[in-house]
Structure formats: C-alpha cells, structure tokens
Amino acid sequence: MKFRFNMAASIRFLVRRMVRDYSRNINCSVSCQIVRSSCPLNLSACRCFSDNAENKTTHFGFETVPEGEKTERVYKVFESVAQKYDLMNDAMSLGVHRLWKDMLLHVMNPQPGMRLLDVAGGTGDISFRFLDYVRSQEERVARRVAQANQTPSWQEISTSYAAPGQEEVEPRRSRAIVCDINKEMLKVGQQKADRMGLTSGLSWVVGNAEELPFDDDQFDVYTVAFGIRNVTHIDLALQEAFRVLKPGGRFICLEFSKVANPLLSQLYNAYSFQVIPVLGEVIAGDWKSYQYLVESIRKFPDQETFKGMIEDAGFFSVRYHNLTGGVVAIHSGFKLFRLLPPQRGDVPRPQSQPLP
C-alpha cells in the first residue's frame, strides 16, 4: 500500500499541538477540578477548565448547550436507550447496520495477534465481529497444520528442543478492548458476550474518548462506530486516537454522513425525522432520545470536512468510503509515527489501564 505524505497536514498538526499544549499549560494551572461526584458518569478522571470554559457552548442535536452539559446529557440518552439499543438499530436501519459493520471489518482486514480498541463500543458489535474473524483465521491455520500431518522437518525438530532455561514463546493472542463512557451500554454488551461465549480476549473499560485511560502506542487498530458525533470535542478524540495507536496503527470510523443525491436526501430526511422518533417511542419508550440522535447526524461534518479533521490530528493516507449513497461513511487513516511527543504539563489524566 502506498502512503501519501501530506506535508500540509503535518505542519497543521504540529502548530495546533504546540498552541494547544501552550494554552493548556497556562490555563490548566489556574484551575483543575475533579468531575462532580453527582455526575452519573462517576469516573475517576480529572477535567481541566479554563476560566471561560463555562461560557463556551456546543450543540446537543439542534439545541445549543454549555460544553460542560453535553457529556452528561449524552450519557443520559444512552443510559435511557441501552436495553433497546440493538433492537432499535435493527428497526431504524431495517437491519442494514449489520452490513455496514461487516464492511468496516472488511476495511480493517484484521490479522491474528492484533489489539483492537473499540471506542464508544457500547454493546460490543464491532469487537464481537473482530474476535470472531481473527479466531476463525487461527482455527483455519490450526486445521491446515493438523491435516498436513507430515513428518517434521529438521528445523521443526531442532526448535522442539528448547535450550536450557528457555521456554517456547507462544504467539500473541488477539484482544479487543471495548471502551465506552456509559456503564449501562457496557453492561448490555457484557451480557451479550456471555450469551455468545465470547469471554476470553475481551475487556470492558469505562472511559471518555477525549481522555482515554491508556498509555501511548498501545493498539494496532482504533475503531469508533456511530459514536464520534456524540463527543463534545471531536478534535480531542482524534488526537487521543492518534496517541494510543502504535506507529503503523490504523484509525477507522463508521459514522452517519451526508447524502449527495438530492432525491435520496429528501427521502432520508423524511424517514429520519418522521419515522425514527416514532419508532423510538414505540419500541424504547423514548421519543426525545431518538430525536436527538437524528439531529446529531445533521450536525456532524460532511465527508471531506471530517477527512480534514483526521489529517489535522496527524493521520496519513486518510480516505473514506460512502455506503448506501452517503447515509454512512467509513473514514480511515494510518499513524506512521509520532509527530510530536505530547506535552501535557500539569494536566492530570485518567489512570492508565493495564492491557492483559
């Protein structure tokens, strides 16, 4: 695969990182506070706020809200819909979301031994597909070896006799870590995993996409499916994705996007605003949450704008694939190397989670 070196994106990334780190070192020394204990997230994470943070606003659907309020409101949305989330996905998309997620896995092309971080992974759909795929590959290889049943070569015989004090090193097993800010969504995912018998090689971590509780250069693949549009600061989430990926690691995002065809766009808008909230009320008993989800799709950047944001975070060879006429898009990019070591100053971070 050929990688396109984007010098302009590299320069933009360096400048933005330096400006951000400088402003953090100045502002965060003024005030740093633990997330309110009354917040339903109950995360052991620190957030730093500058003096004017309370005056900053963002969107919650079509509504304008203070930045500090959005995370809590998004949490309540998914807390409300967690039990019916998978059923509603099937109803809203007529089952097509399963094909979209299968396509994400096709783009990923996972290999045995990979470590996946599935951010906003909620009920585990992407991680389950990942583990099923890599384990089927491992089983296929094992069957081929067993079927061959040939006389071992001299190399195989020699390696079977380990030197004194040496032990045979087993190949690293594939692992998936589902990271989500919402505990209720993770509980539903864990219940599904137990029913499916997917317990080994799978971890569940409560964490914020803007402040991931992992060390640098840990993962081969970072995925986020239908979650990044709910993040308050998308740029910070992308920078965190870049930080935790290994050099050579890949960022893959599946998200609703912009439909180019005018006729399809009209039909899509009519279905979204007139049908989906009604389905939310009938199936999940929650009109407002699904009204927000529809509105949040319209506030998310278009394909080209989001591609530029990913490049600004430091990723290379960024591209996207439209699915279903642009109803959703898969964006992907590679971390070739660390462009600039993070300079976080006195900014506290969530405690890093050890990877099994």
UniProtKB/TrEMBL annotation:
What are its E.C. numbers? 2.1.1.201
What keywords appear on the UniProt entry?
Answer: Membrane, Methyltransferase, Mitochondrion, Mitochondrion inner membrane, S-adenosyl-L-methionine, Transferase, Ubiquinone biosynthesis
Citing just one GO molecular function, the answer is: 2-methoxy-6-polyprenyl-1,4-benzoquinol methyltransferase activity
Provide the primary localization.
mitochondrion
For the keyword Mitochondrion, the answer is yes
Q: Which CDD domains match?
A: AdoMet_MTases
Bilayer disposition of the protein? Peripheral membrane protein
Compartments in which it is found: Mitochondrion inner membrane
Q: Describe the reaction catalysed, as an equation.
A: a 2-methoxy-6-(all-trans-polyprenyl)benzene-1,4-diol + S-adenosyl-L-methionine = a 5-methoxy-2-methyl-3-(all-trans-polyprenyl)benzene-1,4-diol + S-adenosyl-L-homocysteine + H(+)
Q: What are the record's GO terms for cellular component?
A: extrinsic component of mitochondrial inner membrane
Top class in the EC scheme: transferase
Organism domain of life: Eukaryota
Cited PROSITE patterns: SAM_MT_UBIE, UBIE_1, UBIE_2
Q: Which GO terms of type biological process are on file? A: methylation
Q: Which pathway does it operate in?
A: Cofactor biosynthesis; ubiquinone biosynthesis
Q: Which residues bind S-adenosyl-L-methionine?
A: 123, 180, 208-209
For this chain, the family text in UniProt reads: Belongs to the class I-like SAM-binding methyltransferase superfamily. MenG/UbiE family.
What the protein does? Answer: Methyltransferase required for the conversion of 2-polyprenyl-6-methoxy-1,4-benzoquinol (DDMQH2) to 2-polyprenyl-3-methyl-6-methoxy-1,4-benzoquinol (DMQH2). Methyltransferase required for the conversion of 2-decaprenyl-6-methoxy-1,4-benzoquinol (DDMQH2) to 2-decaprenyl-3-methyl-6-methoxy-1,4-benzoquinol (DMQH2).
Q: Which HAMAP family match?
A: MenG_UbiE_methyltr
Designated name of the protein: 2-methoxy-6-polyprenyl-1,4-benzoquinol methylase, mitochondrial
